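Bit of a strange request maybe. I'm writing a small parser for structure token strings and I need a real example to test against, not something I typed by hand. Could someone generate the tokens for this chain?
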Amino acid sequence: MPPPLRPRIDPPPAALPLSGRWLWLLCAVWLLAGVVGHDPWKTDDAIHLGVVFGFLRDGGWLIPKIAGEPWAGTAPLYHWVAAALATPLQTLLPPHDAARLATTLFGAVTLLALAGAARALYDREAGLAAPLLAIGTVGLLVPLHDAHPVAALLAAQALAYWGLALLISRPLAGGALLGLGLGAGFLADGVTAVAITAPLLLLLGSRRWRDARPWPGVLLAAAIAAPLALSWPLALHFEADAHLAAWWSNEWRQLTPRPAASAAGDLLELVGWAAFPVWPLAGWALWVNRRRLGEPALLLPLAGTLLGMLWLLSREARALHALPALLPLILLASGSAGKLRRGATNALDWFGMMTFTLIIGLIWLGGSAMLAGVPPQIARNFAKLAPGFAAEISVFALAIALAATMLWIAALARLPRSPWRAVTHWAIGLAVSWVLLIALWLPWIDHGKSYRPVAASLRAAMPDSSRCIARGGLGLSQRASLDYFAGIRTQPMKNGGRACPLLLVQGSPREEAQPGWKKIWEGSRPGDRNERLRLYRRN
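Reply from user aminoacidic:
Good idea to test on real output. This should exercise your parser:
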């Protein structure tokens, strides 16, 4: 008798301690915590919210812009969705908070698609374990709470995996999801999405997929992906061909390989912490099923992990670039995390409980230092890092922090013994730590990362009659923040800025001479010792 078309890894011996509505409630809390309630923060958050603000303020949604100037560094899907959400929600929330809800939306799609892919590859328990593993993965925490197109890329990648997993049993449904994932991925992050998902189609030539006759689904995927992916480039071709050329050139520059030794070291370092605790579980799954690596349940996520790691080798060493390897690792781990040996399960469980209990205690200690000045030495350290910050006790935030802490205590005391308990403790512990950090520390973090006071001070120092400001060394996040908070837009010196009466320079604490200019203002974010903004007036 021929083997079944959809081989499965043997199901785990016990059900998850956390499932159903409680699992999805935990995921919802994890997704929403920290998305609203703070200003655009330096670097990626401010840059991509600046693009969204440009759509809302200037129109012209075809070309992403920073402070009114075209920016070829991104594809527009995330910003379109963020602007579409912000448009009706601006009456309820600040524009930046409303726009950042796009990250929550894409994060929810990611978790749901991971659950669907794991269930299609393995079983129902794996489908519940996949989102639990995702919210317990350290590397997904910040990217799924900032304004960044990587959230849209992860959602598209997860949909593509779900579609590939379904091609064996339900070709048309799988093809629809695969096509949506491939097309949306290209609109989210261009070449990156193609590099981490399209080569997986070669797996369809293996015997398991070939015997399932997935070709109607593949044709449907192509029919959906091609027009979706090409919609924006074709529109650019007819409306703004120069911007299309600049964006395409920027995309291909990403394929330049880095030195092998440096890349390998960065790979190990990034994946080592960003993928914890998923990578040990995925390694265990491969070892236990080492004689079955040709089955779709193992071959698909294994190939995806290798693709993600190869892509990381060609990129700058940033945690964001390790993310494409995380989703297939999560899928690998979801099939076998409940079958760890008892000793390994107990060791991981003990490590998670001790680690997060310590982290939660330290977060409370820092909150006490900020709010009550106890202990005094820690309070002085917080004040030194954020000069001028005045903490105010919020009854609502304090209630949230207490509720989250009680949830952790209840999880320690009430979770039943199960092979899945270590994974469940880890997910709850990371979610509780994140909620506590947001509830107790968010105002202090926002004070140091926001450009709002810098923009207000700069606006007050500018002569009323000046409308032209040249710039020197001003970064994208600074340009986006000054435009958002104060409507200040600058011009490059080589493009009309030479005639401006004012010059805004970003530099180090040590001032460099600007011949022909007189400094009239200097400012920086509180506690920032490396960056200064200086405004000069022409002599």
